[in-house]
Amino acid sequence: MPIVVNLDVMLARRKMSLSALAAAVDITLANLSVLKSGKAKAIRFSTLEAICRVLQCQPADLLEYVPEAPPGAAG
């Protein structure tokens, strides 16, 4: 998937657990786990804003675009 979620990296940098973030952002641990695993299909801007506020980071610290290799490319 071309969008990589780096939530685990920011949590480690802030020395915060996923459950503590869930409580601070008022989102279920299950939904936050889906986001962290990269399986989420969407995220609300209000949720992204709350996560950034709590972790004191920018959206680009959490989300990264990694282009997929073109079909047939060696790698």
From TrEMBL:
Natural source organism? Hymenobacter edaphi
List the keywords (alphabetical): Signal
Looking at the record, the residues that make up the HTH cro/C1-type domain are 13-62
Protein name (database record):
Transcriptional regulator
Name any one GO molecular function: DNA binding
Q: Does the keyword Ribosomal protein apply?
A: no
Query: What does UniProt give as the signal peptide span?
Result: 1-22
